[in-house]
Amino acid sequence: MERKSHIDTFGVTALVLFAGVLAFNQVVIKVTNGGFSPVFAAGVRSIIGLVVVAIWMMWRSKPLTRTRPVVWAGILSGALFTIEFVCLYLSLDLTTVSRASVIFYSMPVWLALVAHFILPGERLTKTRVIGLILAMIGVGIALADRQGGSASILGDVLAFVAALAWAGIALVVRVTPLAKEKPETQLMWQLIVSSIALIAVAPLFGPLTRDPQIVHFAGLLFQSIGVAAIAYLFWFWLMSIYPASSVASFSFLSPVFSVFLGWWLLGEQVSLSIWAALGLVALGLTLINRK
């Protein structure tokens, strides 16, 4: 499909669907953690996702670039990918989907802030600065709401670190030799490194299983095939045919969907301050993605 200058009806539908899948994945991770250790589950997800993407690349005759500069950049990207999902999975084990999502999906805020100083063409305009401030205030409100002392400070901090690691991946992909590689290669290196690292450190976080049931195995398959492989490749394909800034502008939908699904499917109590934080973050992300 040829590259388009704007997002059409298909693109809008696809991006809304993608945001919904990512949001539902937060709920699935939370449920799957009931049967498996969070870090072990993240490692299994990377392994299965790696196999699926490798098969797809072989079928499409897409070789994995293994030059030294790309390998080192891939290892760095994979290390950040590992940190991101160790923190995210542990965060969702400790706190609610709504809290973790509001904080985790603030990633574009920190990316925009750093990109202003190191990436050409990514300067902060007045509109983007306003968005940055609104989103930061939203995250601050979410962190300040301790839910009567029941909220997990560690869970919040881990979600924040996961967001920073995600932003770091985006920067590595932009400023290293990975920038010239196909999205499949970028994803493959992240899955290769995280598969090894996550499984290696999983025993440090306690028993690998927690009385797994069928629903937990189904959750792992959804995360591995539905998200780590198919959804991410679908995202990369959308990025290849639509303007990146327009695609990024849909990022505000994921935390909105996540909070709603956490309330609807898991019965999470969402306070007014979390709804307010969500609104500020969503509005801030919308403004940040405007050029």
Describe this structure in words.
The chain has 291 residues and is mostly helical. Helix 3 (68-94) packs antiparallel against helix 7. The longest helix has 28 residues, at 214-241. The protein has helices spanning 9-32, 38-59, 68-94, 97-104, 107-118, 126-144, 153-175, 183-201, 214-241, 244-248, 253-266, 272-288. The model has no long low-confidence stretch (mean pLDDT 87).
Please provide a brief summary of the model:
This protein has 291 residues and is mainly α.
Helix-strand layout with pairing:
Blueprint (H helix, E strand, L loop, with lengths): L8 H24 L5 H22 L8 H27 L2 H8 L2 H12 L7 H19 L8 H23 L7 H19 L12 H28 L2 H5 L4 H14 L5 H17 L3
Helix pairs in contact: 1-9, 1-11, 2-3, 2-8, 2-9, 3-7, 3-8, 4-7, 4-11, 5-7, 6-12, 11-12
